[in-house]
Amino acid sequence: MKTINKEKIVLASGSPRRKALMTQAGIAFKIHVADIDESIVDPGTPPENYVCLLSKIKARAVAPNYPDAWTIGADTIVAIDNTILGKPVGHLQAVTMLSRLSNREHSVFTAFTITRPDAHDVVTRVINTRVRFKKLSNDEINWYADTGEPYDKAGGYGIQGIGAFLVKEISGSYTNVVGLPVCELIDALASLGAIRFKETK
Ligand SMILES: Cc1cn([C@H]2C[C@H](O)[C@@H](COP(=O)(O)OP(=O)(O)OP(=O)(O)O)O2)c(=O)[nH]c1=O
């Protein structure tokens, strides 16, 4: 596959969705999962600051291992009524989250940080996508929670999977909901000189 790298890139993430989106975008990269405790950030932090902070922490945890590469860290959350919804633990939490999102609009915030060990946080960006759920019946909620899909996903759903049936409307970046805003990420990597669209001889 044709790639657009000019320099080495490391993805500090264990998310299979982020891996798939980066591959789809034609970026060559290595994965090094950031081994961090996400609970170090206060869940009462405003949602945009929360994701920015976690994306920085993930990128910073991995970058020192790769002096000659750009390291990308990212974080995704769902926010409704200024409350952060992370990944549900167990059926009851999944059902509670999905019930809260039913028939309403919420924000999905993804932040990414691109850094190198010889620089401070070079770029941090946060993107907000507005998503409206249809009105869900209890049967639909329970059935979906039982598919197992909600449990490793912010807000308890996956728009790219079975969870597509929950979403009535979306305004903004689709890939941002899945875990990485590809358009903005590519722009940021290009402006740092990490990728290029022109062949160099
Ligand atoms: C809302 C939504 C989230 N998600 C996923 C994207 C992220 O993988 C996950 C949010 O958890 P994150 O903590 O952002 O990421 P992660 O734990 O999966 O991976 P890492 O910290 O190693 O980078 O939710 C979907 O896949 N689809 C969706 O529709």
TrEMBL record:
One Pfam family recorded for the sequence: Maf
Entry annotated with the keyword Transcription: no
Catalytic activity line of the entry: dTTP + H2O = dTMP + diphosphate + H(+); UTP + H2O = UMP + diphosphate + H(+)
Domain of life: Bacteria
GO terms of biological process kind: nucleotide metabolic process
EC number: 3.6.1.9
Gene3D superfamilies reported in the protein's UniProt record: 3.90.950.10
GO molecular function, one term: nucleoside triphosphate diphosphatase activity
Keyword terms of this UniProt record: Cytoplasm, Hydrolase, Nucleotide metabolism
Keyword match Hydrolase: yes
UniProt subcellular location: Cytoplasm
Main location: cytoplasm
HAMAP family registered for this protein in UniProt: Maf
Similarity annotation: Belongs to the Maf family. YhdE subfamily.
The protein's name in its UniProt record: dTTP/UTP pyrophosphatase
Gene: maf
